[in-house]
Write a structure and sequence with these properties.
This protein has helices at 19-26, 43-50, 52-62, 99-109, 125-128, 131-135, 187-190, 220-226, 273-282, 288-301, 326-340; strands at residues 9-10, 13-15, 33-36, 67-73, 93-98, 117-124, 148-154, 157-162, 167-174, 177-182, 228-232, 237-240, 245-250, 255-262. It is of the alpha+beta class. Strand 2, helix 1 and strand 3 (33-36) form a beta-alpha-beta unit. Helix 2 runs antiparallel to helix 3.
Length: 343
């Protein structure tokens, strides 16, 4: 990358990664990692090495007639999927098509002097191309780990910087990809848009990474200084820990990626974003002194910054704050339902 990104750090590259190395060496670092050639032997990667037409035929052979959602941006729009300037709409239209028809459109667009931007993201593989899972072994994760497997298909385009709740293993099948990555502590410098009206499900940065407006977004210079860049070829994979922020660029006229999302932790966990919504009702508008006092309580009882806050109590005396059981889970949910639905 050029311009303000010239001196950005590069993501560490690992080669010949197996499950043991991933679990014992890569994941504990809590940082993104390029896993060079991890899925180079996948049939789809091999087909893509021959031609875009070959991998397109492979994908069409395993996909059905169920339509997929996709974005279409105007010719000459630069492939940037973003909010409209007035924040009341977007720079693209949302459409539906059969996966095979969309692949044909992307192939046809390669010969156009000014093609539209076409992008289908998070296409659920079990729903749209289940046979793909039979021939493309999912690397590094045990079979009993619950995974969400998705396809990302399009031509040249840019997805704004955003975070995902799960851990992510993004496997490039066709075309090159560039990820610009930030740790979660860079949120204040990335100028995130609305949290509940989003481009593609997750809140995302308003900054155009190719032409940043430092007058409107002055702290973005600090984000650039903290960024790292991962450039991937077909067959490579990128590991991203939970909540790492990533801006994604598809660099070629035909690109395909398959990713795996998964979470680790007990089965009762739901998204902490619900806690943020609840906090709008309970915390945000408190007087500053009270809000700071509640911060101390959260740090002690939820984040356990001082160790186990109930070490002095037997489990039977900890109430709903004890080890989670089906009964405690029921009590918590019933209490929340009562309080949230109270008139």
């Amino acid at each position: 990358m050029s311009g303000p990104w010239t001196d950005a750090a590069r993501t560490r590259i690992w080669s010949q990664v197996d499950r043991e190395t991933f679990r014992n060496e890569i994941q504990p670092l809590g940082r993104p990692a390029i896993l060079r050639g991890l899925v180079a032997n996948w049939p789809a990667v091999q087909a893509a090495s021959r031609s875009p037409e070959d991998v397109s035929l492979l994908l069409k052979s395993v996909s059905g007639d169920k339509p997929v959602d996709y974005f279409e941006g105007p010719p000459g729009g630069g492939g940037r999927y973003a909010y409209a300037p007035d924040m009341k709409g977007f720079t693209f239209e949302r459409r539906k098509a059969k996966l095979g028809d969309l692949l044909d459109r992307i192939l046809e667009a390669r010969s156009m002097p000014a093609p539209p931007s076409l992008y289908a993201g998070a296409v659920n593989v079990p729903a749209h191309a289940p046979a793909l899972l039979e021939t493309h072994a999912l690397p590094l994760l045990e079979d009993n780990v619950e995974k969400l497997v998705s396809l990302w298909i399009g031509n040249q385009g840019r997805t704004p910087a955003h975070w995902d709740l799960p851990q992510n293993l993004a496997c490039v099948i066709a075309g090159r990809r560039r990820f610009t990555l930030f740790a979660t502590d860079q949120i204040p410098n990335l100028y995130i848009g609305p949290l509940d009206v989003t481009i593609a499900g997750q809140p995302s940065s308003l900054v155009d990474f190719h032409n940043p407006d430092f007058t409107a977004y002055p702290r973005f210079r600090d984000a650039i200084a903290a960024a790292e860049i991962a450039e991937l070829e077909p067959g490579d994979a990128l590991y991203m820990p939970s909540l790492w922020i990533h801006h994604v660029e598809a660099l070629d006229s035909f690109g395909v990626m398959m990713n795996l999302w998964w979470r680790e932790g007990p089965s009762h966990l739901v998204t902490p974003f619900l806690t943020m919504l609840h906090a709008l009702l309970t915390l945000r508008d408190l007087p500053v002194r009270e809000r700071e006092a509640w911060r101390v309580l959260f740090e002690h009882y939820i984040f356990e910054m001082n160790g186990d806050p109930f070490a002095h109590l037997p489990d039977t005396a900890r109430g709903v704050f004890g080890e989670m059981t089906p009964e405690r889970l029921r009590v918590i949910k019933e209490h929340l339902l009562r309080t949230l639905t109270r008139a």
